[in-house]
Amino acid sequence: MTERSDRTPRDTPAGLLGDVVSGFARLVRGELALARAEAKQSLDDATSALGKLVIAAILGITALNVLAGAAVAGLIAAGLSPVWASLAVGAGLLVVVFALVQFGLTQLKPSNLAPKRIMENLRQDAETLKSMVISDATSNHRP
After folding, report:
1. How far apart are CA 36 and CA 70, in angstroms?
2. CB of 42 closer than 8 Å to CB of 113
3. Percent of the chain with pLDDT over 90
4. CA atoms of 26 and 62, how far apart (whole Å)
5. Contact (Cβ atoms closer than 8 angstroms) between residue 104 and residue 56
6. How many angstroms separate the CA atoms of 77 and 73, rounded?
7. 3-state SS of the chain?
8. pTM greater than the 0.70 cutoff
9. Residue 75 and residue 91 in contact, taking contact as beta carbons nearer than 8 Å
10. For 104-132, how does the pLDDT look when each residue is reduced to its tens digit (9 = 90+)?
11. Rounded CA gap, 35 and 119, in Å?
12. 118: closest CA among 27, 22, 44?
């Protein structure tokens, strides 16, 4: 006569291992989806920053070509020499261009583009897995 086991397939070591592997696979799929989403967001941010740099360059050139002449003429009419009028207008416009370029470059720093949520989630997942393994190991070794 064979003895029937009261264990279900999930209570067996193989069943538990299967649950762990399946849970781990779901976890990895979720983390990969998050990584893809963060990479897309970082690419979108980089594209936006590059667009701002292009706009800054175009505005800088346009400002120098369109407004500089009129501003220089106005300063000359106000009594400034042509050289000082040109230098004053050029310096003022370059300050604006410099500010726009700095803003765009700040957005392109690797620390601003790095995936933050995925790294934190991976740390938390590793801690959870570690605690599960330790908990399982201590419960299996009890007399």
Report:
1. 50
2. yes
3. 26
4. 54
5. yes
6. 6
7. CCCCCCCCHHHCHHHHHHHHHHHHHHHHHHHHHHHHHHHHHHHHHHHHHHHHHHHHHHHHHHHHHHHHHHHHHHHHHCCCCHHHHHHHHHHHHHHHHHHHHHHHHHHCCHHHHCCHHHHHHHHHHHHHHHHHHHHHHHHHCCC
8. no
9. no
10. 888 888 877 777 777 788 888 888 877 77
11. 9
12. 27
Written as six digits, the tokens of 112 are: 């601003």
Quote the tokens at residue 142: 């009890």
State the Cα angle at 54 between 52 and 60, rounded to 5°: 100
**Number of residues that make up the chain:** 143
Q: Of 36, 39, 50, 59, which is closest to residue 107 (Cα–Cα)?
A: 50
